Amino acid sequence: MNKLAFASLILCSITILAGCNMDQRIEYPVTRKVDHVDDYFGTRVADPYRWLEDDRSDESAEWVEAQNAVTFKYLEKIPYREALKRRLTEIQNYPRYSAPLRVGEHYIFSKNDGLQNQAVIYVQKGLDGEAEVLIDPNELSADGTIRIGLAGVSGDRKYIAVTKGEAGSDWSEINIMELASKKILPDRILWTKFSAAAWYRDGFFYSGYDEPARGGELTARNQFQKIFYHKMGDPQEKDTLIYEDARNPLRYFSLEVSEDEKYAFLGISEGTSGNELYWKDLTRAEAPFEPLIEGFEFDSYPVDNVGRKFLIYTNVDAPNYKVVLIDPDKPSKNNWNTVIGEKPEVLSSAGTGAGKLFCFYLKDARTQIYQHELDGTPVREIELPALGTASGLSGWKDDTVLFYTFTSYTSPPTIYKYDPVKGESEIFRRSAVRFNPGDFDVKQVFYESRDSTRIPMFIVHRKGIALDGSNPCYLTAYGGFNNSIVPAFDPLNIALFENGVVFAQPNLRGGGEYGEKWHKAGMLDKKQNVFDDFIAAAEYLIRENYTAPEKLAIRGGSNGGLLVGAVMNQRPDLFKVALPAVGVMDMLRFHKFTVGWGWVVEYGSSDNEEGFRNLYAYSPLHNIREGVDYPATLVTTADHDDRVVPAHSFKYIATLQEKYKGRNPVLIRIETRSGHGSSNVTKDIEETADVFSFFFHNVGMNVQY
Question: pLDDT category, 593, cuts 50, 70, 90?
Fold first, then answer.
C-alpha cells in the first residue's frame, strides 16, 4: 500500500466520538497488520505490528498523528480539563531550589521560580553573597526542552563540567565552563549517556559511545561503551582511550576519581544490578587497572579513600549492605575490615563530607541518618523533622557546613544546613506552596500479599473522608530494579488530594526498601510476586472501604508501566482506569533496543528457553485477550524516549484496540520532543492534566474548579 493510500485509509477510518455523548463507542485508527511470526523454542508468536518499531518512518508518523487526533478529541470533551490545567499551573508556581554545592569560595545551586521550563543554575560568593545566573537553559531553546546538569568540578575549583540534553533524550554532551568568567569553553564531548566528568589534572574521564548510525540515534542498541580521558582545549577526536572491552559489547563502564586525585575506580556491569570494581593508582604513569571486587553477583561502590585504603559500600555477604575498608594490596575478602556492619534496616546509601561518614537507612521506607567517624565510630543520629525522606550530606573533606534535603508526601522539599561538629541543623531554604498540609492525613499500613508476605503501603487523603467505598483512588507503584519508592512531594498530586482522591503507594517486592533479598524476590522468575503484591494492595483498599473497583485507577511508569499492563491483564475486574506510562510492554524484544539489554539481569531474556517461558507468561503485549472487559486505558509515551522506546506502547495499544470490544476508551497520548519523563514543566503540567482528567471522568467524579 502506498503512503497516500494508507493516509487516506487512516483518516477515513476515524469517527471522532459521534455527537457529544462521550459514552458512545470510539472508532480507532485502523492499524495495518503484517504477517510476521517468530519461533521461540517451538512456540510461534505473532508480531503483526512489528512495523511500528520503526517509529521514525512516515507510516508510523501518520499513525501517531491519527492516534493523537482520537485521544485529544476525547480529552477536549471533558468539561473541566482546562480548569484542571489552570489549577495545576497555580499549584506548580512556587520557587524550588536544590541544595548548594561549594566550589572553592563559591556556592552553586539551581532554582526554578515556579513555571520556568527548566531550573536555572546560579552561583554566589559564600552563603550570604548575591546569587547570579550561571547558566539559564531556558535561553537555549525556543520550546524549553534543553536541560543542563552539573557533571563534575575541577580539582582547582576553577572549572565545572556541565551536561546538556535535548528533548528528553538520554543522550547528552559535556561542556566546560570557566567559573570566574562564566564562559563556556570550546570543548564539546558528544554521544555520552549516564556519564559524569571525573576530573583529573587538566581534564576529565568520561564514558562515551561511538556515534550511532544516522536514523538510529533513538532506537539502535547502545553497545561498546568506553572510558576516555579528555584534556581541556583538545578536540574530542584527540581524547585518549582509557578502557574498552571489545569482547563484551553489552557492558557499562563508569569511572570515579578520589578527591585527592590519587586513585581511579572503574565500575563494570552487565546490567542494572551487579558489578565488578577495579582500581588504578594515578600516581604511577603506567599503572594498570587492578581488581578490587570481581564477579557480577553483588553491588559494590567506592565511598572514599582513607589514605591508601578504600571505603566501599557493598552487599557482598550483606543483603542489607555494609561499609568495608579494603587494602588494595590485599583485596581478598578475608582481609576486609568491616567499618559499618549490616543491620536489620537496609543501608540505602553511604557518603562522606567534612571528613565524616554518613549512613542513610530505610526503616519501612522512611529515612534514618547516622553520622560516624571514618573508622566507623558512631557520632550521632541526625534527627529529622518527621517521617519522610532525606538526602544529601556529601561534600569535600574541608567543608565545615553540609546540607541535606527533607521531603514527604505533603511536605515540599526543605533544605537544612548542618554543622557536622555540633550536630545542629537549621532551615536554610523552605519552599512555600499554596496549600495546607494539615488538611491531609498520611499513614502507613501493612497488608498481606498472596503468599502472606507483609507489604507496606503509604496512604494519603483529605482528613475526615468516609470509608464507605465511595472514594476515587489513585494506586501507583514501581516494584523493580532495586529502586526504593519513598515518601516524596509532587505538587501536582495536590489536585488529587483536594478532590477527595485517596492516594496509595505500596512498596512492592523488586524494589530496594528491604535490601537485596526484597529485590531478588521480585525479579527474574519471581516477577509474579510484584504483580501479586500490587493486586493485593488493590484488594486491601477495597476491603477496607477506601474505594471500590469502579473508582480505582492504577498508574505506573517505565517498569511501573509494565506492572500496570500485567495486572490489568490478570485482574481487569479490580480496576476502572489503567494509566501505563512509558511502559516496558513487549517482554520478548525489550533487549533489542538502546539500553534494554541492561535489563536482562532484572527480567531475563527471551533468547533462552527458560527466560522466554517466564516472560511470555506475563508480557503485557502478549497477554491481551479477546472477550475481556478491560479498564478505561490511557497509555502515555513520547517520541524521544530512547530508554523505553515508544514502540512498546505503540504495539501495545494497537493490540488492545484490536482485541477489546467493550465500551471503555483505550487510547494513547504521544508527546513530542519529550522522553522518558516530561522534558519540561509545561509538558509535565499538560500531560498531568490530561491523565488526571481521564481518570476523573472515567470514575465519574464531579470536579469543581
Answer: very high
3-state secondary structure of 60: helix
Angle at 449 between CA 322 and CA 492, to 5 degrees: 75
Mean pLDDT computed over 622-628: 98
Q: Angle between the 527-543 and 609-618 helix axes, to the nearest 10 degrees?
A: 20
pLDDT band at 23 (very low <50, low <70, confident <90, very high): low
Verify that 580 and 598 share a domain, yes or no. Answer: yes
Tell whether 534 and 652 lie within a shared domain.
Answer: yes
pLDDT average, residue stretch 222-235: 98
Give the separation between CA 703 and CA 682, rounded to whole angstroms: 22
**What are the residues facing 46 on neighbouring strands?**
37
Catalytic residue (one of 106, 230, 648, 676): 676
Strands of 100-251, DSSP E: 101-103, 106-112, 120-125, 132-135, 146-153, 159-166, 171-178, 183-193, 198-200, 203-208, 226-231, 240-243
Question: How far is CA 673 from each of CA 172, 375, 557, 686, rounded to the nearest angstrom?
Answer: 15, 49, 18, 14
Q: 49 by DSSP, 3-state: which?
A: coil
Residues 428 and 468 in one domain: no
Question: Considering 349, 394, 558, 619, which one is annotated as catalytic?
Answer: 558
What is the distance, to the nearest Å, from the Cα of residue 278 to the centroid of all Cα atoms in its chain?
27
User: Is the pLDDT reported for residue 16 higher than 80?
Assistant: no
Say if residue 20's pLDDT is above 60.
no
| 428 and 530 fall within a common domain | no
Alpha-carbon distance of 252 to 596, in angstroms, equals 12
| Residue 676 is among the residues annotated as catalytic for this protein | yes
User: Residue 504 CB: number of other CB atoms within 10 A?
Assistant: 24
pLDDT at 553 over 50: yes
Query: For 21-35, 277-291, 306-320, which range has the lowest pLDDT when averaged over its residues?
Result: 21-35
Distance (Å, whole) CA 149 – CA 393: 19
Pair 496, 387 in one domain: no
In the predicted structure, residue 137 carries a pLDDT above the cut 50: yes
pLDDT, residue 209, reads 98
Q: Within this chain, do residues 422 and 444 fall inside the same structural domain, yes or no?
A: no
pLDDT interval class at 22 (50, 70, 90): low
Quick check: 26 and 72 in contact, CB under 8 A?
no
Q: Residue 614 and residue 119: Cα distance in Å, rounded? A: 43
The two beta strands, 275-281 and 290-293, are antiparallel
Q: What is the DSSP string of 460-476?
A: EEETT---SS-S-EEEE
Q: How confident is the model at residue 1 (pLDDT cuts 50, 70, 90)?
A: very low
Domain boundary among 398, 432, 466: 432
Ordered DSSP codes for 498-526: TTTPEEEEE--TTSSTT-HHHHHTTSGGG
Determine whether 631 is exposed, middle or buried from the number of CB atoms within 10 Å of its CB (0-12, 13-18, 19+). Answer: buried
Grid coordinates representing 487? 515518601
Q: Which residue, of 376, 401, 432, is where some domain finishes? A: 432
Which of 347, 270, 274 shows the shortest CA–CA distance to 311? 347
Closest CA to 621 of 578, 577, 594, 654: 654
Global pTM reads 0.95
Tell whether the model's pLDDT for residue 19 goes beyond 90: no
246 in a structural domain: no
Do residues 467 and 379 share a domain?
no
Range of the domain at 422: 343-432
255 touches 265 (CB < 8 A):
yes
Give the three cell numbers for residue 389.
525522606
Q: Say which residues have a Cβ less than 8 Å from residue 680's Cβ, sequence separation at least 6.
A: 117, 118, 143, 144, 145, 147, 674
648 counts as catalytic: no
* pLDDT at residue 11 in the model: 34
Q: Are residues 542 and 572 in the same domain?
A: yes
